Amino acid sequence: MTDANPSPRPGQLGSIDPLPIGTVAELTDEITDNVTRVIVGHDEAVEHVVTTILARGHVLLDDVPGVGKTMLARSIARSIDCSFRRVQFTPDLLPSDITGVNVFNQKTREFEFQAGPIFANIVLGDEINRAPPKTQSALLEAMEERQVTVDGDTRPLPDPFVVIATQNAVEPNRTYELPFAEIDRFMKKLTLGYPTPEEESEMLGRTVGHHPIESLEAVTDLESIVRARETVANVAVEPPIRQYASELANYTRDHAIIGASPRGTIALLRAAQARAVLDGREYVIPDDVQYEATQVLGHRIKVGTDTAADDGTTVAQDALERVRIP
Q: Whole-prediction pTM value?
């Protein structure tokens, strides 16, 4: 795995040659199979993370401690030969600890920029909700615009750039609530849950000696990921599908205090494009949208105390049941 050096952005390399759809599907299977050498019993979650990367999105893993959130992120990064940095979020973490800082060079008598860990292809934000909102805000520009601004200077981030963040769903008195603007920038929010006794036994058999992640090797390179993302971006989304996604989003807006944003609708269709590629298709069908809707829209919805829905996921599921399928 390489060090965290900024990669050229797409415009610097000329046009991107997309991979054949069948090749992208095989690539996804290879990455997923490689990660499942480490992660036991969460095949669907692993696939969701991989498809999010192909759909140019970011992932939030939310669950109790010790179920493999960090290990999943590390396994994904190790499976791709790219730059990877991990940021352990703590209450005393500063925005400059993430983005970088200008340091005065005594020899040259000039300020030099020392890049922070955000300058990597895959960035693991571990326990992101342990840092205060001011620090979390350092991710907003990076996640949306793939750039950071420090002391008035804007610097592009590597391409691709993916944030895989984890947060623990416990100790609310020792954590901070993520700003809604930040939550909205995550394409998907996933939970892993506890393993079954059989899965836990299998996991113990793999880890009581040397941990399998120590020998995990990359199964693809950065160029293949960039070309695969281009393949996904070229998948056709016809007007009826776009209208269907819009109606799903509008249903959530009519049945919650805060519904899915237009950014969420875009994320839904991009995720559906990746799902279509996995099924070997050059076009999106309603099934693709339905498969991705709960993970993409649920965390963007805020329900009120006077609604029958338990949470945003319930509202997203209700939308799937009530909105007419084209």
A: 0.89
